[in-house]
Write a structure and sequence with these properties.
single chain, alpha+beta, 2 helices, about 15% helix
Length: about 150
């Protein structure tokens, strides 16, 4: 079993031995056992509170092995609005519920949740169910330390 203890900045030129696709929720697990697609067991032993992002590179503790983290496609709902104010209103209501949200100028994205979907539809937003990589905001106190 390989144990990864250090996070390096994303580097598209890095030569990695493994790639580990993880959902948004799995990327919040700083100490966890995972299995790669080809059955390789890896263990993350990162500082508590580490939140991994798509493209992060992890270094194995005893060998010079690098592993890339990929945002794994997962069921999400993408929220669109006819006006910026309506999209902001949706972000406000989701924030009040402490829901992880991916925020862009054109849409909001969150994990699939039928109750929240109904609420957003009642507010007049358009919803599209998709299976895509989900990359929620880290929050005001989150940071991407390397």
């Amino acid at each position: 079993m390989l144990t990864f203890t250090q996070r390096k900045p994303p580097d598209t030129d890095a030569i990695v031995s493994l790639t580990l696709p993880l959902t948004a929720e799995e990327r919040t697990r700083s100490r966890h056992r995972f299995e790669t697609a080809d059955g390789q067991v890896v263990f993350l032993r990162l500082p508590r509170g580490t939140v991994l992002q798509d493209g992060d590179i992890l270094l194995e503790e005893t060998q010079d092995i690098l592993m890339r983290i990929k945002a794994k496609p997962e069921p999400v709902i993408t929220v669109f609005a006819n006006t910026p104010q309506l999209l902001l209103r949706a972000a406000y209501h989701l924030g009040n519920r402490h829901v992880p949200v991916e925020i862009t100028i054109n849409y909001l994205r969150l994990s699939h949740d039928s109750v929240l979907q109904t609420m957003l539809e009642q507010l007049g937003l358009d919803i599209k169910a998709e299976i895509l990589p989900f990359q929620p905001e880290q929050g005001a106190y989150g940071h991407h330390a390397h």
